[in-house]
Design brief:
With 929 residues, the chain is of the alpha/beta class. The structure holds phosphoenolpyruvate (PEP) and magnesium ion (MG). The site of phosphoenolpyruvate has 10 residues, from strand 26 and helix 30.
């Protein structure tokens, strides 16, 4: 097993072909190099680079991604792939002076996936390939350890059976568990060589039963089948799902790495581990990781045994420890980024199995970027690309509110991914999905597992937080949640998770599905019950420093969508440079306002409507005063009333039911109905009989088949001009009032859902008239603008006309996406999953701006608008304003600002800075994927 490096002999060169499919590495040099991630995948490129750098890497070869793409097209690889693989195998055998699965010293290999972008645990791996009934005996003799040899063989049959032959894992687990029971073994390691030999025989029967064939004894056949299975695993459900949520193209394919096995489970001088050159959770500069002696890599990653901190290795094997530190330090310097590495120690000798840029939390990304600039490893302009804009959200994750509450800590696990999560327990991924419900009304659930596997990915995605009882900081749960920016406590060993009984037992207490717990992913505590969470503070010093490097590159402003003073203050703290959208309808839902709003809607005459609006005016003015004060010195864009009016009234169906059941109600029920209809004028039960039918008739009048395309937006203000009048008056009276107090106020009145210039002229005339009236009455003027939202394709087409009346544009890309695609933004989820699955759409266009279609309208409207009005201020206020790739598009299109929800302001700032810096630097300098 120990790798001996011999001179290359008897090389068989394949016939020259146009495509080089197979890249060899070993003997101190590699065919490929670290830059070839497209061809070799991240892992293959890393192995080539490490080999070239003279590091101790077990030799092998990489079958490049082209072969995978070929396999996906034809369900088979070409003869060239086969012949090049055979040649590489021969070269490997010669270098090792071993034969695959043959002779006294059989060569065994691992067959692993490795795509361009890391997809941890999503695809398949087969270890110990080459073992069969003969070679297992040779291995037993050579290692002088029959138990080890049989254990390796049974692992191969199990992995091969599952991955290549599609046999359920449980079929093997049942055999293994019943053998443990029969032998009264507590741990896997308690099974001796004889018992494992029996397990192997049983496993072979499982294979025969499920496939009608024997487990393949021919090592070469094993290799071919394993290679093809790894190619197929590119398209397994969990890999596809992972690619979708991480925006990785389905077209890339994976490479396959075939590498001589080294064994970490040969005894007490062997071991295996994983690590990071810095702490991936909090970014401190410390050698970080974990290892297990006498174990194989899968034991560490799968979390089957809880590993030991890597610093302990110094005590166990000081030489190996020092060598490892030396190598990983060199690797970090070489790649100029934090490394995530895997190693194996075989009989006291260290082998590096993998290195790659390590995934990290947002907190760690910022800290590591700052450190590396200070250490002179990277420049500031590179540092700003070392953080994905969405990762800044980590600085905004909530904390548990523990003040004044008695908390009961049930257990302490590892702080695997920071933040807090409070939710109801579920024990399987499917239940998590079911209980969490649709994304629009997602309920908080905590997924509790003994350990997570890649099959749990859909449940992890919907859960608020993850709790596992086994596994370390590099377990599947920890790695995946950090990538998702989701709170996770891992390896809470005191908790006994019984997934079958749907119970978790800890400290003598039993918790069942639906019980509430609170997780603190920053300290690793698991707390009983439902705690409140606290908003985070964004004033972290290191974050500020990082942003002070990024912001100067930014040319586009970032504003926030905020409707109330509290949100405006929050947005400003995150660095918002104004409000890009204040949705005034949200202001009418307050307890005191809604009755007047409803009275206004129910009014049959203009006179009654004006009377109700008069009551709303002072309340609306007070709201604006609060927002203006919060944004002193910055512009505030206020949109006039937009939604269809029926949204403020009871549902038609509910009213019908109430009318039908009124006659059968007792006094108590009637009393509660009076409460329900109080806003509509019900004072006593006797009022209901007349009031409810009248209300129903008004609701029916307002009823529309397609309200989103109906009586809403500027159409409301045109048909009921008194609404626009009242809102304009409230805005200007508020503006004048705060201006008199010395507040610098810049209102921008925005008219929604404009399609024609005449609509714009109609509403602008009202606003200008009211402004004049208020300024005369109050003897004070303020600067203001009147502009429009571009939310309809027609508006984009006639933007040059509209810009003659509108002093600014703001793209309402939520509605613009809805009206361009003809997708209902509220119902699209019925269609979207299939569209994404089928590759009809790559991303949800309501999340990521559709550059090809909607983007063209944005571009066209900006250009046409500026033709009429060269200084036209243009922004965006749809959800896309806080999504990094859409922000980049807005920058490229020449928008003046993006506006997004307060919690995305930091993300938008960094995305806008990266867009500008990227252009300046001609491309993205070393962005960490
Ligand atoms: C939009 O349509 O993009 C927009 C911001 O308005 P709303 O979401 O309120 O319709
Ligand atoms: Mg809209």
């Amino acid at each position: 097993m120990a790798t001996t490096t011999l001179p290359e002999t008897e090389m068989i060169e394949p016939k020259p072909t146009t495509t080089k499919y197979v890249y060899f590495f070993g003997g101190g040099k590699a065919d490929g190099n670290g830059k070839m991630k497209d061809e070799l995948g991240g892992k293959g490129a890393g192995l080539a680079e490490m080999t070239n750098a003279g590091l101790p890497v077990p030799p092998g070869f990489t079958i490049q991604t082209d072969a995978c793409r070929e396999y996906m097209r034809h369900n088979a690889v070409s003869k060239d792939v086969d012949s090049q693989m055979d040649a590489a195998l021969f070269r490997l055998e010669s270098l090792q002076d071993q034969k695959l699965g043959k002779g006294d010293n059989p060569l065994l290999v691992s067959v692993r996936s490795g795509a361009k972008f890391s997809m941890p645990g999503m695809m398949d791996t087969i270890l110990n390939l080459g073992l069969n009934d003969q070679s297992v005996e040779a291995l037993a003799r050579r290692a002088n350890n029959p138990r080890f040899a049989y254990d390796s063989y049974r692992r191969l049959i199990q992995m091969f059976g599952n991955v290549v032959l599609d046999i359920e894992k449980s079929a093997f687990e049942e055999v293994f568990d019943s053998k443990k029971k029969q032998k009264k073994a507590k741990l896997d390691t308690d099974l001796d060589a004889k018992a494992l030999k029996e397990v192997i025989e049983e496993y072979k029967k499982v294979v025969k039963k499920h496939t009608t064939h024997d487990f393949p004894q021919n090592p070469h056949q094993q290799l071919v089948l394993a290679r093809d299975a790894v190619f197929r695993s590119w398209n397994n459900d969990r890999a596809k799902h992972y690619r979708r949520i991480n925006n990785i193209s389905d077209e890339l394919g994976t490479a396959v790495n075939v590498q001589a096995m080294v064994f970490g489970n040969l005894g007490d001088t062997s071991g295996t581990g994983v690590g990071f050159t810095r702490n991936p959770a909090i970014g401190t500069k410390e050698f970080y990781g974990e290892f297990l002696m006498n174990a194989q890599g899968e034991d560490v990653v799968a979390g089957i045994r809880t590993p030991v901190p890597i610093l302990e290795l110094e005590k166990v094997m000081p030489n190996v420890y020092n060598q490892l530190r030396d190598i990983t330090t060199r690797l970090e310097k070489h790649y100029r980024d934090m490394q995530d590495f895997e190693f194996t120690i075989q009989d006291g000798k260290l082998y590096m199995l993998q290195t790659r840029n390590g995934k990290r939390t947002g907190l760690a990304a910022v800290r590591v970027a700052l450190q590396m600039v200070e250490e002179g490893l990277i420049k500031k302009e590179e540092a700003i690309f070392r953080v994905e804009p969405n990762q800044l959200y980590d600085f905004l994750v909530p904390r548990l509110d523990e003040k004044g509450v008695k908390i009961e800590v049930l257990a302490k696990g590892l702080p695997a991914s920071p933040g807090a999560a409070v939710g109801q327990i579920v024990f399987t991924a499917d239940e998590a999905v079911e209980m969490a419900g649709p994304s629009s009304q997602r309920k908080p659930v905590i997924l509790v597992r003994a350990e997570t596997t890649p099959e749990d990915i859909h449940g992890m995605e919907v859960a608020k937080g993850i709790l596992t009882s086994r596994g370390g900081m590099t377990s599947h749960a920890a790695v995946v949640t950090r990538g998702m920016g989701k709170c996770c406590v891992a390896g809470a060993g005191d908790i006994d998770v019984d997934e079958k009984a749907r119970e978790m037992r800890v400290k003598g207490q039993v918790f069942r599905e639906g019980d509430w717990i609170s997780l603190d992913g920053t300290t690793g505590r698991v707390i009983k019950g439902k705690l409140n969470t606290l908003d985070p503070s964004p004033d972290d010093e290191e974050l500020q420093k990082f942003m002070s490097w990024a912001d100067p590159y930014r040319t586009m402003k970032v504003r926030a969508n905020a409707d109330i003073p509290r949100d405006a203050i929050q947005a400003r703290a995150f660095g918002a440079e104004g409000i890009g959208l204040c949705r005034t309808e949200h202001m009418f839902f307050g307890e005191q306002k809604i009755p007047h709003m409803r009275a206004m809607i129910l009014a049959n005459t203009e006179k009654d409507r004006r009377a109700a609006l008069k009551k709303l005016l002072p309340m609306q003015r007070a709201d604006f005063i609060g927002v203006f004060r919060a944004m002193d010195g910055l512009p505030v864009t206020i949109r006039t009333l937009d939604p269809p009016l029926h949204e403020f009234l009871p549902r038609r169906e509910d009213l019908m039911v109430d009318i039908a059941t009124l006659a059968h109600m007792d006094a108590k029920q009637k009393k509660s109905l009076v409460g329900k209809y109080r806003d509509y004028g019900a004072k006593a039960a006797g009022d209901l009989k007349k009031l409810m039918p009248a209300l129903l008739s008004r609701v029916e009048q307002l009823h529309e088949f397609n309200p989103m395309l109906g009586h809403r937006g500027c159409r409301l203000g045109i048909t009921y001009p008194e609404i626009t009048e009242m809102q304009a008056r409230a805005i200007f009276e508020a503006a004048v009032a705060v201006a008199k107090d010395g507040v610098k106020v810049f209102p921008e009145i925005m008219i929604p859902l404009i399609a024609t210039v005449k609509e714009m002229a109609n509403q602008a005339a009202i606003v200008h008239r009211v402004a004049k009236e208020v300024f005369e009455e109050k003897e004070r003027t303020v600067e203001y603008l009147v502009g429009t939202m571009i939310e309809l394709p027609r508006a984009a087409l006639v933007a040059d006309e509209i810009a003659k009346e509108a002093e600014f544009f703001s793209f309402g890309t939520n509605d613009l996406t809805q009206t361009t695609f003809g997708f209902s933004r509220d119902d699209v989820n019925k269609i979207l999953p299939t569209y994404i699955e089928e590759g009809i759409l790559k991303r949800d266009p309501f999340e990521v701006l559709d550059r090809e279609g909607v983007g063209q309208l944005v571009k066209m409207a900006t250009e046409r608008g500026r033709k009429s009005r060269p200084n036209l201020k243009v922004g965006i206020c749809g959800e896309h304003g806080g999504e990094p790739s859409s922000v980049e598009f807005c920058y490229q299109t020449g928008l003046n600002y993006v506006s997004c929800s307060p919690f995305r302001v930091l993300t938008a700032r960094l995305a806008a800075a990266q867009a500008a810096a990227g252009e300046k630097m001609q491309g993205e300098a070393g962005r960490t994927k």
